[in-house]
From TrEMBL, chains A, B, C:
Coiled-coil region list: none
Gene source species: [Ruminococcus] torques
Family: Belongs to the UPF0126 family.
Membrane topology: Multi-pass membrane protein
Protein name in UniProt: Glycine transporter domain-containing protein
Compartments, as annotated in UniProt: Cell membrane
């Protein structure tokens, strides 16, 4: 395995770990048992890529390369064990810590998988279809978190967190452009960074996208 | 592009606009920001066809023909801008207007996409498998709205609105029969009209399908 | 059709009937009308296998062999008619009966479809990839019930019922091992039995998997 393949694999695994932890945290928060937590972690980690591969008409890489699921299982297990051992971490004063870690893990996963989705579409031969490449990136990026939230019955992050889809779309487009100019590795790095910067900036500076307030009648 | 292709494209675009507006309205109602609204509009508009194409084993047309997504984005933007500009439209006295428009957009989308699903299956070469053709029609018709409601966390239209699946099934079957006798365009028109007539009739005459009332213990 | 094919078909149909009834019961409980109940029954019965076939890149068997959907429709119709005719069955004193039947139907479906998923992957030529085979089994087993619960808006069985995913995973692994030693029929039977034994044991002896209790702030 040459250096480039190795770097790509490492980047993918970081994204897998991040998303799997975010899934596990949602599962723990929803008081699921250990298997529910593991399932939710794995679904979050491999879900987006699975949708992408199915649309590309190839067998999902999660199946042919067990390492992704193995890493996802271990990553989902970690927070579960940590919280089981150290009960103090469950005290409500750690809510902000929880929220912050959840935000970080979800953002890293979103950034990396958005870039990975673009790169997968590129290697699948869709060099010219910038639209399709971006779409694959966004689908791969938001797919896992969307499955996680829908399965756990919580309001999807993509709709409640501001500039979530926005960050993924911007990252995907930058990733495609970077790919054309400098190739795969820079594209992966730049795409990820763009998403992270937008997400963190939005959270820190309270960026809000316009939304219409209707009188609530529910 | 010959006349028939053009007519089919126009019909598909009308369905795309209708479903995208219905998705955007649900998003606005759920107080999503502008990107959430756009995502929900696009998912509603292209979701059903994407499921259909994945099952048929072809790359979703939404990816290869960006026009559908482009039209969906513009259609989802329209109600958002309209409501942002004209705040009066948000007053609760417009609830019935909202409900009516929502019903119309969803019914038109349901009708057109049911027929389009049948026609896509037909052109894919499944002339004889009436069952498969109808199934594809219903999947394409209800798929987008189902994704919309599940993602937005509202009770799926298909289960709460009476004779929703029923209308789609009837329309799909009529569409297949019309296809055999008179070809594509008449099939698309007849399939759509059948769905619309059943939906409007059900709403107007308060048709109710039987349902079992259990004592509620939730 | 030789004997083995016949036995496999019968096993699949039993699973279809069980899952379809479980879907119909959820629909009735959610006060859906007859079409909603039928749709939910069919989705529960064919949903898992459809995901599996899409991932394997083949046209879902539910489409090419209408018998599965036909049997699912009839099975979903049965509890609906029974409850419509015999109102007494709706009295709350039958809640335990309802819960028991629901548990049985869901467990039988989970067991059979887990084994069927493994066997489908095997016949698709993935003899050596034990990981993929098990994954297909679990996906086929839990997929239908997961779609049912997400579409009906109830907390997914897989996350609230203890050792649900656990039972499916154990059954899938045993099924793969049995397949290697004794072939298809024994694999199907053993896989199903393992799932059933674990589910029933978990329910009867109140097995609980560890889960972390966080202070609730919702």
């Amino acid at each position: 395995m040459d250096l480039q393949t190795l770097i790509v694999l490492i980047i993918e695994l970081i994204g897998t770990i991040a998303f799997s932890i975010s899934g596990a945290m949602v599962g723990i928060r929803r008081k699921m048992d250990i298997f529910g937590v593991l399932v939710l972690g794995v679904v979050t980690a491999v879900g987006g890529g699975m949708m992408r591969d199915v649309i590309l008409g190839k067998t999902p890489s999660a199946f042919v390369k067990p390492i992704y699921v193995e890493v996802a299982v271990i990553s989902a297990l970690a927070p579960f064990l940590l919280l089981s051992i150290n009960k103090r971490l469950m005290h409500s004063k750690y809510q902000t810590l929880y929220a912050g870690l959840m935000f970080l893990m979800d953002s890293v996963g979103l950034g990396i998988f958005t870039a990975v989705g673009v790169s997968t579409g590129w290697t699948a031969g869709y060099h010219d279809n910038m639209f399709f490449l971006s779409f694959l990136g966004v689908l791969t990026g938001v797919g896992g978190g969307l499955l996680r939230d829908v399965m756990a019955g919580v309001p999807p992050y993509i709709f409640v967190k501001h500039v979530y889809a926005c960050a993924s779309i911007a990252g995907a487009i930058c990733c495609v452009l970077a790919y054309r100019s400098w190739g795969q590795i820079p594209a992966l790095v730049i795409g990820t960074i763009v998403v992270l910067v937008i997400r963190i900036g939005a959270a820190h500076y309270r960026w809000n996208l316009p939304c219409v307030k209707l009188e609530d009648e529910e």
